[in-house]
Amino acid sequence: MRIAFMLFLLSLAAPADEPRWEQKEFDCQEPAGCDQASCCHYGLAVYTREKPGAQVKEVKAVGQVGAPPEEVFAVVTDYEHQVGHMPYVQYQAVFSRTESHVVFWTVADFPFVSRRDWIVKSHLERNLPAGVWRVSWQPTVIEDVPPPEDGVVRLKVNTGSWTMQPIDGGKRTLATYQLLTDPGGSIPKFIANRANTTALPELFARVRKRAESR
């Protein structure tokens, strides 16, 4: 538990010149009485912070998963099979995949806003020091993707990551999801910020279900 708590504190660290994270939500279903993500076996802590130069807040979610980091990594990078398994994803196409990078296109239907799509390049990092696994992404441009359909807004800001830290001797994972995205279009700032956090509990629930059943 001491190691998990230290990892949790590290996950909240921010450079001195950046705003600190503010906890917005915390829900622990198991065990009862837990009041922080480091002890919560089944639950989720959600944080937001202002990001210099960004119109919307950056979001972060921290939760434990009852599976090793490599299994969680396999789920969150399985871009070929996320339709029906990840919230709001309607269509996904992988254009290229190597051991270190994946380029893919996603169309999603979110609450509060019209459909969005994005093209990103993911960077895959396996078995880093201390047994950490990580995937991060940022927008990219490829020639083979058609322009957005009518009523679909293509995201220009979409950077984020999953960081998977081993706990309980590597049998379980402390997962941290981080995202900075601007929905674009004529969306008020408060609605954009709400839309960016709405899917987080369902996202973690689905990742847990797939990872723990592998």
Structure, described:
The chain is an alpha+beta fold. Helix content is 20%, strand content 39%. It contains four helices and ten strands. Strands 1, 2, 3, 4, 5, 6, 7, 8, 9 and 10 form a ten-stranded mixed sheet that branches. Strand 4 and strand 5 (101-108) form a beta hairpin. Helix 2 crosses helix 4. The chain is globular, with a radius of gyration of 17 Å.
Write the layout of secondary structure elements.
Elements: H1 2-12, E1 22-30, E2 42-49, E3 58-65, H2 69-76, E4 89-97, E5 101-108, E6 116-125, E7 133-139, E8 153-154, E9 157-167, E10 172-182, H3 189-198, H4 200-212
Parallel strand pairs: 6-8
Antiparallel strand pairs: 1-2, 2-3, 3-10, 4-5, 5-6, 6-7, 7-9, 9-10
Helix pairs in contact: 2-4
Strand content: 35-45%
Rg? 17 Å
> Major sheet: size, sense and barrel closure?
10 strands, mixed
Number of strands: 10
Global mean pLDDT: 88
* Helix and strand run: HEEEHEEEEEEEHH
Uncertain stretches of 5 or more adjacent residues: 1-13
Descriptive key words:
214 residues; alpha+beta; 4 helices; 20% helix; 39% strand; globular; disordered N terminus
Could you give a short description of this structure?
With 214 residues, the chain is an alpha+beta fold. The chain is 20% helix and 39% strand. The protein has helices at residues 2-12, 69-76, 189-198, 200-212; strands spanning 22-30, 42-49, 58-65, 89-97, 101-108, 116-125, 133-139, 153-154, 157-167, 172-182.
